[in-house]
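Module 6 notes. Inverse folding takes a fixed backbone as the condition and produces residue identities as the prediction. Think of it as a translation problem where the source language is geometry and the target language is the twenty amino acids. Below is one complete input and output pair. Work through it position by position during the lab.
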């Protein structure tokens, strides 16, 4: 049920999940800012996805905390930090806490902040995650269709990368995915990079770290193997800020469904998206030219090279 908030409400959006989820929330943030120019709009996120909102003009403040499974300190300092954050947010005297993913932990966290009202998802309104999240704005009088997703590259990081990798145009190939069904075999990435390199420079991107890192598994070993086999320009991205900068330098992007795909879409890049077992209608690239390639088995291990090459060519 919609309410008539004051012209300067204090609104907090709680998005404690993955990178792509937060990127899909940026159209809602833009709509809130457009409707409530004098509002205080904050975001409560985690330390892993917080750089998504760096430089975003629609947000007044970003509060980030470490998830318990990612904590870098002992349990007691972690709990103290968490309590201090809750105390700071209570002082904001929130009118609304918007919780797009209404998991019990997220709702418990939102309730602990004592907002005037919690707005969360009661049904899945619309097929895409952007639409489902945007629909929550209806409680504050937001109407119409969601606009594009947006992220804002850090200019100094972009300049530094340009100095390191030279002039493009680049076609970025990001190889990393969290779930096994979303992982394309290394040898097919090698074959793809070799073919694409006949037409343009290929920039190889991946999630940093070792594959056996229990907190943030990465693809350092796979990237080095692919680089050695095909000679692609391997660009390390030790943090999310650097990944956003690297994607901003790409002419187009090939990647599995995941955070990098949504970042590329938020940067306006044409995308060839490799989908395994995640639902295409909910997670496809939003608002940009794209081609989706998904094997019938919904396991990327079964996806051959040719459909991906064809998608790259048809994208232009």
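Target side of the pair, the amino acids:
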């Amino acid at each position: 049920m919609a309410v008539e908030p004051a012209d300067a409400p204090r609104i907090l959006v709680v998005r404690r999940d993955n990178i792509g989820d937060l990127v899909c929330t940026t159209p809602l943030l833009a709509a809130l800012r457009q409707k409530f120019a004098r509002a205080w709009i904050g975001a409560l996120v985690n330390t892993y996805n917080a750089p998504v909102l760096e430089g975003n003009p629609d947000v007044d403040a970003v509060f980030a905390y470490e998830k318990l499974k990612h904590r870098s300190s002992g349990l007691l300092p972690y709990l103290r930090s968490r309590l201090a954050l809750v105390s700071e947010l209570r002082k904001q005297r929130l009118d609304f806490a918007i919780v797009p993913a209404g998991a019990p932990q997220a709702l418990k966290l939102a309730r602990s902040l004592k907002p005037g009202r919690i707005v969360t998802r009661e049904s899945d309104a619309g097929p895409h995650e952007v639409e489902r999240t945007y629909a929550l704005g209806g409680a504050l009088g937001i109407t119409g269709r969601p606009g594009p997703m947006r992220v804002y590259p850090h200019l100094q990081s972009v300049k530094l990368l340009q100095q390191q990798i030279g002039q493009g145009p680049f076609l970025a190939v990001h190889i990393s995915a969290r779930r096994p069904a979303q992982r394309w075999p290394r040898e097919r990435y090698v074959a793809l990079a070799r073919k694409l390199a006949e037409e343009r420079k290929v920039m190889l991107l991946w999630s940093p770290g070792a594959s056996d890192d229990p907190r943030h598994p990465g693809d350092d070993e796979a990237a080095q193997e692919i680089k050695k086999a095909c000679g692609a320009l391997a660009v390390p991205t030790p943090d999310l800020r650097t990944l956003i900068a690297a994607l901003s330098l790409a002419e187009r992007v090939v990647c599995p469904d995941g955070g990098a795909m949504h970042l590329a879409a938020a940067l306006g890049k044409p995308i060839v998206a490799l989908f395994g077992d995640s639902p295409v209608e909910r997670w496809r690239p939003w608002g940009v030219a794209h081609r989706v390639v998904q094997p019938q088995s919904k396991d990327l291990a079964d996806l051959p090279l040719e459909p991906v090459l064809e998608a790259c060519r048809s994208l232009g």
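Reference fact for the lab report: Residues 80 and 86 are 10 Å apart (CA to CA).
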